[in-house]
UniProtKB/TrEMBL annotation:
InterPro entries: DNA_brk_join_enz, Integrase-like_cat_sf, Integrase_catalytic, Tyrosine_recombinase_XerCD. Residues 72-138 form a coiled coil. GO terms for molecular function: DNA binding. Residues 313-522 form the Tyr recombinase domain. The lineage of its organism: Bacteria, Pseudomonadati, Pseudomonadota, Gammaproteobacteria, Alteromonadales. One of its GO terms (biological process) is DNA integration. It comes from the Bacteria. Keywords: Coiled coil, DNA integration, DNA recombination, DNA-binding. Belongs to the 'phage' integrase family. This is Tyrosine-type recombinase/integrase.
């Protein structure tokens, strides 16, 4: 049975974890308290003893409103004292009565009701505050008109534009959009919104927002060096005008490399959506979203950010120490070390898609074994793990036939009798750095160095794990059977790209033949013989101590 607020930390210790709303620039904040045990039975016993008092405390503090630092500190101290008192106390025999499943559900439901009721109350308070503010604006405008001798005719009534601070509005917009974003996207968007509000001013009222403020933000961001956010974290500023001045000075004294056009666009795309939202809801008179555009010369060619692996690169990778009989000194082999490059080469899957594969995602469709790339966790532990399985786009949801080279390497034997869980049990997913962070770091920072794999090709274009995808896509397009290439729309389906052609959108309704696609995947010529790539051989390496 699931316990919503009971979690394990990375050391295997059970903890209670609650989510609260902090100030606008901080967003959601996790409060975590250790139950000081790795045993589930004892942790559950303490969980049941703590929750009645915890829910009462959370109700008192109204956790769904934005809390300031002193309120957060007081809440943390109160919860910590109460939890430590329960944890350190001797086990009470009467605690057994809390162990009934029905009681557990009531405890979880009670805390859920606390979150829900306080959220509804906060929304009601904010609505009343907006109505009161609007009434005062109208009253002040009418009094001003009377004082200057103007008649209060219907034509002179004040504009219906609402006026609220940027800090408040960012909170509202973030809450409005958060459910449509993945964890990583939401974190990046909040960082972009925070920087915008700090440059323009958190306390700036929406009715005061004009083209000059947007231009100041635009010019400041263009002048800032990369990774300036790290310096900002070191500075403890509270007043809005001081924070805005800090950003202005940082832009003036900057001598570092500024953000590229792509980097600026990542910031501006979030802010454009926010500015359009402000105009739609009458918080500003004009739509300033079009003021944030990055000019790109039409004469510039598209720069390749990643190159594809040539056959000599493929040979160096799959004849490296990972795929031989002896392991390196002090090497700690992991299953994904063997499988991730091999699967990426023969499927073109993105690194996050490979990292999120579950045992249940190895499926049979139309008589063909496939990697099922989807956005739904099937294992109960993963559903509650706080890591999103969402994909880049809806076109990323697809079934990719598993190449014979991958099956011959021992994929089915590797799975064995497992029925569920991550395909790679020794892989830890990251909710804040992207699901494929552990694979990416191992491959791009360590493996390519140990295996002496070039980091750039002959043209100076960078090579990395994502190059496997470029390689697969390029070679699949070149592969022909009986003189015919794979159909364009089927190639797009396999790689998870969107096909905007009229023919596909009009006549194709998901009618892809997986057996037919598999023939093309198996026919790809990488210029390498895969017969010596074996997971059984990889396992045997572990008995060697290395040199």
């Amino acid at each position: 049975m699931k316990n919503r607020y009971l979690h394990k930390n990375r050391f295997g210790v059970y903890c209670l974890r609650f989510s609260i709303l902090a100030k606008a620039k901080q967003g959601h904040l996790q409060l975590q308290f250790s139950l000081k045990t790795k045993e589930y039975a004892l942790a559950f016993e303490r969980y049941c003893a703590v929750m009645p008092s915890a829910s009462s405390i959370l109700t008192k503090f109204r956790i769904n409103k934005h809390m300031n630092d002193s309120e957060i500190t007081q809440l943390k101290d109160t919860l910590k004292e109460m939890i430590e008192r329960v944890v350190e106390a001797k086990t009470d025999p009467s605690i057994v009565k809390w162990m009934a499943p029905i009681r557990q559900r009531r405890l979880d439901n009670k805390v859920d009701d606390v979150f829900k009721s306080t959220e509804q109350l906060e929304e009601k308070v904010q609505r009343l505050e907006r109505e009161l503010r609007l009434s005062k604006d109208k009253e002040n405008t009418l009094l001003s008109a009377l004082a200057t001798g103007a008649s209060a005719t219907p034509s002179s009534t004040p504009k219906s534009t609402n006026s609220r601070s940027l800090g408040e509005l960012i909170d509202s917009y973030y809450t409005y959009k958060e459910s449509t974003w993945g964890d990583r996207t939401a974190k990046q968007a909040l960082s972009n919104f925070t920087r915008f509000a700090e440059i323009v001013g958190f306390e700036t009222m929406s009715t005061s927002l004009d083209s000059r403020a947007i231009e100041r933000y635009f010019n400041t961001l263009k002048s800032l060096p990369k990774n300036i956010g790290r310096e900002r974290f070191k500075v403890n500023l509270e007043k809005a005008d001081e924070i805005s001045a800090w950003w202005a000075n940082a832009a003036k004294r900057s001598t570092g490399t500024p953000l590229s056009s792509g980097g600026l666009e990542k910031h501006f795309s979030d802010i454009r959506g926010f500015l359009a939202w402000l105009h739609e809801r009458h918080f500003v008179d004009l739509d300033y979203s079009k003021h944030l555009k990055v000019a790109v010369s039409k004469g510039n060619k598209v720069k390749e950010t990643r190159g594809m692996y040539e056959s000599l690169h493929i040979k160096k990778i799959f004849e490296s120490y990972i795929y031989t009989d002896e392991k390196r000194f002090r090497e700690a082999p992991k299953s994904f070390h063997f499988w991730a490059p091999l699967i990426a080469t023969h499927s073109g899957m993105r690194i996050s898609e490979i990292a999120c594969l579950e045992v249940q995602d190895i499926d049979t469709v139309e008589g063909v074994l496939v990697f099922s790339v989807n956005d739904i966790w099937k294992t109960s532990d993963l559903k509650d793990g706080g890591v999103s399985k969402s994909k880049k786009t809806s076109d990323s949801i697809r079934n990719i036939p598993i190449a014979e080279a991958v099956l011959d390497a021992g994929l089915i034997e590797f799975i064995g009798r497992r029925k569920s869980g991550l395909l790679f049990q020794d892989l830890k997913l990251s909710s804040n750095k992207g699901q494929g962070n552990m694979v990416s770091r191992w491959y791009n920072e360590f493996f390519v160095e140990y295996a002496n794999v070039p980091r750039k090709n002959d043209r100076g274009i960078p090579l990395a794990f994502h190059s496997f995808r470029h390689t697969f896509v390029s070679l699949l397009d070149k592969t022909q059977i009986d003189g015919s290439p794979l159909r364009h729309d089927e190639s797009y389906y396999v790689t998870g790209h969107r096909d905007d052609s009229v023919r596909t959108q009009t006549y194709n309704h998901g009618s892809y033949s997986l057996p037919y696609i598999k023939k093309y995947i198996d026919a790809i010529d990488f210029g390498f013989d895969w017969k010596n790539v074996s997971y059984e051989r990889f396992i045997k390496r572990q008995k060697y101590s290395g040199v």
